[in-house]
Amino acid sequence: MVIAIDGPAGCGKSTIAKLIAKRLGFYFLNTGSFYRAVTYNHIQKGLDPRDKESVLKTAKETNITVVNGDICIDGKNVENLLHGPDVDLNASYVSSDPRVREIITSLVRSVASNMNIVTEGRDTTTVIFPNAEYKFYFDASPEIRAKRRINQHPEGQTYEEVLRDIIQRDENDRNKEVGALKISKDAIYIDTSYLTIEEVCEKVVSVMDK
Ligand code: DC
Predict the structure, then answer these.
(1) Is 148 in the pocket of ligand 1 (CB under 6 A)?
(2) In angstroms, rounded to a whole number, what is the distance separating the alpha carbons of residues 51 and 103?
(3) Calpha distance 96→38 (Å, rounded)
(4) How far, in Å, is the centroid of ligand 1 from the Cα of 35?
(5) What is the Cα–Cα distance from 165 to 80, expressed in whole angstroms?
(6) 114-135 pLDDT, tens per residue?
(7) Is 8 in the pocket of ligand 1 (CB under 6 A)?
(8) Residue 119: CB within 6 Å of ligand 1?
């Protein structure tokens, strides 16, 4: 079974998806981590994330596996290296190339095959798993998402910088040629702005209990 959740950066998808997965005994699969892994590898090589041809080459060459839920490149666990501001912003450029998306989409599908998963991203309900049994779209205002991010990672960036990056990433995510962030017709829309984590979880589970 596939439970798919899409929504913009910082709307609570990962936190909730992990909790739902734990509750149901399903695997949690964060599809954004795959784009982050390609981005990280590309930056590590000293290459430009906006240069589409070199990004495509990196996407083809990056050997991504998932071990105990963590992303590995060439067998090395890089999970904790994928969430710096550099990867945050550049992943939205890397993920804008349809050719890169094709590579990641088939990789995600093969990792997920025959598993019960709760997955999240931008196009899990529309492109990667159009036949998912349950589909959700989470939303929250950019300001609320920036505040959440600052609370989680108070070091480094100011609120204004985080907000500016979130607005830029939203713009990039919504205007992709392929795999753009959009609300699937058959997804259940949940605005998480003023809900606690538990309240969002309850809403998701109550839909599944029906
Ligand atoms: O969810 P996230 O912030 O970890 O995602 C990282 C980047 O990858 C973000 O710019 C959106 C992009 N992404 C995507 O284009 N499609 C997905 N299914 C998941 C993430």
Answers:
(1) no
(2) 17
(3) 12
(4) 6
(5) 20
(6) 899 999 999 999 999 999 999 9
(7) no
(8) no
> How many angstroms does the Cα of residue 120 sit away from the middle of ligand 1?
9
Residue type, 83: H
Each residue of 54-95: pLDDT tens digit?
999 999 999 999 999 899 999 999 999 999 889 988 998 999
User: pLDDT of 149-196, one tens digit each?
Assistant: 898 877 788 999 999 999 998 998 899 999 999 999 999 999 999 999
Q: How far apart are the first and last CA of the chain?
A: 16
Residues 6+ apart with CB under 8 A from 95: 35, 101, 104, 122, 173, 176, 179
47 φ/ψ sector (left φ>0, alpha ψ -120 to 50, else beta):
beta
Report d(CA 205, CA 210) in Å as an integer. Answer: 9
AA identity, residue 108: V
- The response to whether residue 179 sits with its C-beta less than 6 Å from ligand 1 reads yes
Dihedral (C-alpha) 26, 1, 60, 76: value to the nearest 10 degrees?
10
- Its sign, for the CA torsion 39, 183, 129, 8, is positive
Q: How far apart are CA 165 and CA 170, in angstroms?
A: 9
Structure tokens at 30: 């964060």
Token digits of residue 193: 């702005």
CB 96 near ligand 1, within 6 Å: no
Which one-letter amino acid corresponds to residue 41?
N
Q: Whose CA is nearest to atom 9 of ligand 1?
A: 92
